[in-house]
Amino acid sequence: MSELNKNASNDIVASHGDKFTDPGIPAHKERMSDKDPAAAKRAEHQSAFLFTLSIIGTITAVVVYFAIRPEGTVTSVRNANLALGIAIAFALLGIGLGAIHWAKALMSDHEVIDERHPIVSSDEDRAGAIEALEAGVKDANIGRRTVLKGSAVTALGLFPLTIAVPLVSSVGNDWDVSKFRHTLWEKGKRLTTDPAGRPVKASEITVGSVVHIIPEVSEEERASHAWISEKAKAVVLLVRLDPKDLKETEERKSWSYDGIVAYSKICTHVGCPVALYEQQTHHLLCPCHQSTFDVADGAKVVFGPAKRALPQLPITVDDEGYLIAQDDFNEPIGPSYWERLK
Amino acid sequence: MTTTTPSKVAGAADYLDQRTSIGTVVKNFARKVFPDHWSFLLGEIALYSFVVLLISGFFLTMFFVPSMGLTTYHGPVASMDGQLMSEAFASTLRLSFEVRGGLLMRQVHHWAALLFMAAIVTHMMRVFFTGAFRKPRELNWLIGCLLMILGLAGGFTGYSLPDDVLSGNGLRITDGVVKAIPVIGSYMSYFVFGGEFPGEDIIPRLFSLHVMVVPALILSFVGLHLLFVVLHKHTQYPGGGRTNTNVVGFPLFPVYVAKAGGFFFVVFGVLVLMGGTMAINNVWNYGPYDPSPVSAGAQPDWYMLFLEGSLRLMPGQAEIVIAGYTLSLNVLIPAMIIPGLLFTFLFVYPFVEAKVTGDKREHHVLDRPRNVPVRTGLGVAFLTAFIVLAVAGSNDLVATHFHMSLNAITWILRILLFVGPVIAFWITKRICLSLQRKDRELVLHGHETGKIVRFANGEYIEVHRPLNEQERWLRVNYDAHRPLEIEPAEDSRGVRRKSYKQDRRWQKLSRFFYEDRVEPVRPSELHEVQGHGELEGGPVAAELNS
Amino acid sequence: MKALAARRHHRFTPVVIVMFALLVVGGIYAAFAPSSAQADTATNQDIQEGEKLFLANCATCHGANAEGSDIYPSLIGVGAAAVDFQVGTGRMPMQASGPQAPAKPAQMNETQTKQLSAYVASLGPGPSIPSAEQVDPEKGDIANGAAIFRTNCAMCHNAVGAGGALSEGKFAPSLWETTPTHLYEAMLTGPQSMPVFNDGTLTSEEKRDVIAFVVDQREGSAGGLSLGSLGPVSEGVWVWIVGMGALIGAAVWIGAKSS
User: Fold this and answer.
1) Nearest to A35 by CA among A112, A105, A111
2) Beta bridge mates, C172
3) Which residues, numbered 23 to 42 in chain A, qualify as contacts with chain C under a Cβ-Cβ cut-off of 8 Å?
4) Is residue B176 part of a domain?
5) Interface of A with C in 268-287 (CB under 8 A)
6) Which residue of C has its CA nearest to A210?
7) Topology of domain A180-325, CATH
8) Which residues of C touch A207 (CB under 8 A)?
9) In sequence order, what are the beta bridge partners of A216?
C-alpha cells in the first residue's frame, strides 16, 4: 500500500514554491436593497405580497373544497381537481417564494467562514477509546472464557431461526411448484371467448380472425379468486389462417382444425400476454418486450428476447361444431424455470 | 411588540433547556455555515419530495384497502360499472372519484415519486462529477447509493398497489424474472406470491413493504445521510478564499432556514401544480388486473425503464439447457447481471479512484469536472448506457413517434449499448482536456479584447486583457494527478516483492486515469509569457497608451 | 331410419345435399351478416359510376376486375364495409408503398365512396356498411365495451386508443379521430394488419359497446392534461421537463446573488 502513494503528493510539494496564492474571498458587492432603502422597502412589500397570495390561496382551497363537488363525470372531477390543485399550489408557492425572496433580498448576504477540522478523532481520543474497550474486555474477561463466548455467539446466531422458520415455511403457501405444469385445459374442454365466456364454433371463425380464449367454466367459478391464478396459465389465442399458409409438423397436423390453431398467450420470455396479432404477416408480437412469434410456423420465435415457441393447445370440434381441447398443453406454459424440463 | 412576549419565549426556552440542554445544540447549529450553490439544492429536492410522499401517502392510506378480495364495483366510473375487481382497485377508484381531494393527493403522490427518483439521480450526478464522494465522504456516497435503491424499491412496491392491468403485467414480468433464477427460481416465485402467480397475497405484502419497511429504511438512511453532512460540513466549489480547511457561505439561521424552508414549499407547490393539472397513472384507463389483457405502451415508471430496456434488447438465443436444467440467460443477463454491473460501478467507484490516485487526503473543495477528464468521461459513459437502456425500454413509443421500425430501433440500440458509452467516454474526455487547455490559454494570454495594434515594423497583434486574480485562481487551483509510481519488482536486497504483480495492475489502471492530463499554469510560466507583452499593462499596451 | 338409409343411394342425393348445404350456408350467412340496410339504396347507376371510379383509381393495383395480384389483395367479396373504411379514411387509394397504408384526408367525397362501395359489393357478397343504429355510441354499454376493448384491442391500440407500435415499422393507429362507422367497419373487416372480428366472435352489440367505450375516452382524462395517454414513459418525460425543469430553475434563482 504505502509504496503506491509516493507520487502526486510529492510532486505538489516539490512545486510548491511555484504556485499561485489564494486571492481570498472576493469583495462583497452591495445589493440594491443594501444601498437603497426604497429598494429594501420594495423587496419587503414583494415578500409580503407573496405571503398574502399564499393566504388567499389557502382560503380559496378551502372554499373550492366545499364549493366544487365532483359529480362523478370525468369533466367535473377534472375541474374540481384542477381548481383545488391550483389553489393549494398558490398557498404553497406563496410561502416558498416569499421566504426565499426575503432571504435573498433582505437578510445579510455577507459570507461567513467556518473552520473545518480533520474528521479523524484526536490521538488523545483514540487512545482513550482503545483504553475504554480494553478495560471492558478485561472486566468481562472475554479473552479467557472461550466456552462462554462460543455459546453466546451460537445462541445469537441461532435465535433468528425462531422467526425465519415459521415465516419461510408459510410464506410460499404449500410450496407445491408442480402446479406450473398443469392448466385447466383437458380433453373435451370447450374453448370460450374472453371475457364473455361464450363457446366458439369453428364455423364462426373466418380467416384472419383472432379470438381470445379461456376454458369453459361456470360463471360462479369465474368470480372466484382461484380462477385468476388458473386464467393466468390457461389463456389462449385462437387464430384462423388459410390452411395453405400453415406450416405444420407431422405430429402436430392433428392439433389444428381446418386452419384454426390455438397457442398459449403467455410469453415464454417472462410471461406477458402475447397478443398483438398481425393478420397479414401471421406474426404475434408481445407488447412488453417485443418477442415476435410466427403463428403460421409453430409460433416459433422470429425476433426478440424469447427463446422458445409458444406452447400449442391441441384442438378439435365436438359434435355440435364447438371447438374443444384435445388435452392439456404438452409442456409447461410461460417463462422458463430451472426444472422446467424435468 | 409587548414586553410580555419575549419573557414568555424566554420562559419556554428556559423550561426546555433545563430538560434537554437544547441551548448547546442551538449555539452549535444556529450559525452553522452552508455554502451557496444551486446544485447543492438537488439533494434537497429529493428530500422534500420524500416529505411530500409521506404527507400524501398518509392521506392515501386512510382510504386505500390493500386487499385482493373480489368485489363488484358500482360507482361513478362508467367504464368500470358492474366489473369484478379487487378491493385494492375498487378503493383506488373510490379515493380518486368519491373522496374529494383524493385524486389530487394520488397524483401528487405519484408525481412526487417520479420527482424523488429524478432528483436523486441528478443529485448523484452532481456528487459524482464534482468528486464530492472523495474522502471523508465515501461512506455517505454508499448510503446515497443505498437510498437510490430503496427509492427504486419504494417506487416499485407502490406502483403495483392499485392492482391494475399495467402494474399487474409488471408483477407478471417480475414473476418471470424470479422464475429464471437458477435452482430456486420456482420456489422464489412461491415465496414472493404466496403460491402461484398472482395469488391473493401479493398486494397486502407489497403494501406492508411500501408503507412500513421501505419508508422506515429510507427515513433512517436519510437521517444518517444528513448526519454525515453535518459532521463533514458541506463541500464547496473552488474559488477565492475557499480552502480545504474552511467552509464559506451563509449561516443556517436565518438565511438557510428561509431559503431551504422556502424551497420545501416551492417543491411541494410545483408537485401540487403538477397533480392538479397533469394526469398521472389514471388506473381506470387500464382496468382491474386480469391475466389476459395487456395494453400497448406497457412500461414501468421511468426509473425502471433501464431494466425494461435491458430485457427488450437481449436476444433470446442466450437461454440454454444444461443436463436437462434450463438456464434462462436471456432473462438473467438483462435483469440481474446488467443492473448488477451498473450498481457495482456506483458502489465501488470512489474506492477505485482513491486507489489509483494514491490519495489519502480529505477533500472538501470540489473538482471542476473538466479537471478530472477520465472520471467525467466514465460518468458520461455510465449515463449513456443508462439512457440507451431507458430508450430501449420505450422503443415502441420511439417507433410510433419517429415513424421508425421497432426492429430497426432494437438493433440500433443493441449496438449502441456497447458502442455508445465508449464513444461518449472518448468525446467527453477530449472535451475536458480541451477545456483545460482553453483555461491554460486564458490564464496565460488573457481575454481577447478585439483591439488590434500595429507595430512600427508592420506586425499586428491583438491586445489581450489579463485575467483578474479570482478568474485566474479558479483556473490554476487544481491538482493534475499523475499515474502511480510503484516500487521495482525486487527490493533492495534482491528479493521479489509478492505484491508487485498487483501493484502493476493498479498502475495500469492509474495510467488509464491520469496518463493524459493538462497541468495547471505555474506563476513562472505566466511570467515568461507576460514578457512577450501582448497583455494589457504589458509593454505594448504601455506604448499604445503613451 | 331405414327409409332414409335406402334413399342415400338415390341418384338425386348429391343434388339434394348440395342444395341443403347451400341453404344452411346461406342461412348462417343471413343470420350473421349485418343487415344490409344500405344495400337497398345502392342503385344500378351507383354501381356503374363506382365501376368508372374503380377503373380510374384502383384498377392499377387491384386489377381491372378487382381480382388482385400476388402483392395486392383481391377485392371480390371484401364487401362494401371494407371499401367504405379504406376509402373513407383516406387509406386507399394508397399514395406510396410503405410498411402500411396510413390514414390521410380522404381523396373521394362521400358520394364517390358510396358508389365505389356499391360497385365492389356487387362483385361478391361481403360485409356491408353498418346502420346508424349499429354504431350509435349512446346505445352501447361502456363498461362491457371497456372489458372487450382491454382483451381484444388495447394490446395494439393502447388502453384508451392512443395507438401503438407493431413490428417492422407498422403501427396501430390512434382511434380518437375515427368515426363510429369506421370503427365498426375496421372490426368487421380487419384492414391491413388488424385481425377480423366478425359477428361470430364479436357480436354486433359488443362492437357497439366497444364504440361506446372508445367515444367515451374522448372526454379526456379525469386527472387533467392527458399527456397523450401514453403511460409511464410520457409521465417520466414530463417529470423531468416540468418538475426538474421548474425546480432547477428555482434552485438557480435561490443560489444566485440578489442584484
Assistant:
1) A105
2) C164
3) 29, 31-33
4) yes
5) 273, 275-281, 283, 285, 287
6) C195
7) Rieske Iron-sulfur Protein (2.102.10)
8) 196
9) none
- B146 with B213, same domain? yes
Task: State the count of interchain CB pairs (< 8 A) between B and C.
Answer: 204
**Lookup result for grid cell 376493448:** C149
For the question of whether the overall pTM of this predicted structure is more than 0.90, the answer is yes
Longest CA pairwise span in chain A (Å): 102
Burial pattern B66-91, b for ≥16 Cβ within 10 A else e, equals bbbebbebeebbbbbbebbbbbbbbb
Residue ranges matching CATH 2.102.10.10 in chain A: 180-325
Q: Are residues B191 and B315 in the same domain?
A: no
Q: Where are the beta strands (DSSP E) in C149-202?
A: 164-165, 171-172
Per the CB < 8 A criterion, the answer to whether C160 and B285 are in contact is yes
Q: For chains A and C, what is the number of CB pairs under 8 angstroms?
A: 104
Which residues does chain C have within 8 Å of residue B103's beta carbon, measured at their own beta carbons? 222-223
C236 touches chain B (CB under 8 A): yes
Residue B127 domain boundaries:
45-58+100-132+249-286
| Beta-carbon separation of C158 and B296 below 8 A | yes
Asked if the structure places residue B5 within a domain, the reply is no
Smallest CA-to-CA distance from B401 within C159, C180, C237 is with: C237
Q: What is the largest CA-CA distance in chain C?
A: 112
Kindly determine whether residue B118 and residue C244, on different chains, have CB atoms separated by under 8 Å.
Answer: yes
In this structure, what are the phi and psi dihedrals at residue A99, rounded to the nearest 5 degrees? Answer: -65, -40
pLDDT tens series, chain B, 546 aa: 445 566 888 999 999 999 999 999 999 888 899 999 999 999 999 999 999 999 999 999 999 999 999 999 999 999 999 999 999 999 999 999 999 999 999 999 999 999 999 999 999 999 999 999 999 999 999 999 999 999 999 999 999 999 999 999 999 999 999 999 999 999 999 999 999 999 999 999 999 999 999 999 999 999 999 999 999 999 999 999 999 999 999 999 999 999 999 999 999 999 999 999 999 999 999 999 999 999 998 899 999 999 999 999 999 999 999 999 999 999 999 999 999 999 999 999 999 999 999 989 999 999 999 999 999 999 999 999 999 999 999 999 999 999 999 999 999 999 999 999 999 999 999 999 999 999 999 999 899 888 888 888 888 888 888 899 999 999 999 999 999 998 888 878 888 888 899 999 999 999 999 999 999 999 998 888 877 655 655 555 545 544
User: Are residues B114 and C243, on separate chains, in Cβ contact within 8 Å?
Assistant: yes
* Count of the separate structural domains present in chain B: 5
User: Using an 8 Å Cβ cutoff, are B432 and B420 in contact?
Assistant: no
* Same domain, yes or no: B476 and B427: no
Quick check: A104 and C258 CB within 8 A? yes
Residues B343 and B405 in one domain: yes
Q: Which residues of C touch B408 (CB under 8 A)?
A: 169
Burial class (CB in 10 A: 0-12, 13-18, 19+), B485: middle
Widest CA span in chain B: 97
Closest by CA to C188, choosing from C82, C31, C100, C93, is C82
CA–CA distance, B58 with B55 (Å, rounded to integer): 5
**How buried is residue A74: exposed, middle or buried, by Cβ count under 10 Å (0-12/13-18/19+)?**
buried
For C99, other C-beta atoms within 10 Å of its C-beta total 15
Do B255 and B127 fall within a single domain? yes
CB contact under 8 A, C226 and B302: no
Residue at a domain's end among B420, B444, B468 = B444
Upper half-sphere CA count for residue C34 (Cβ side, 13 Å): 32
C-alpha cell at A51: 405571503
Are the Cβ atoms of B195 and A174 closer than 8 angstroms?
yes
Domain-embedded: residue B196: yes
Within A107-259, strands assigned E span 112-115, 191-193, 210-215, 236-240
User: Is residue B3 assigned to a domain?
Assistant: no
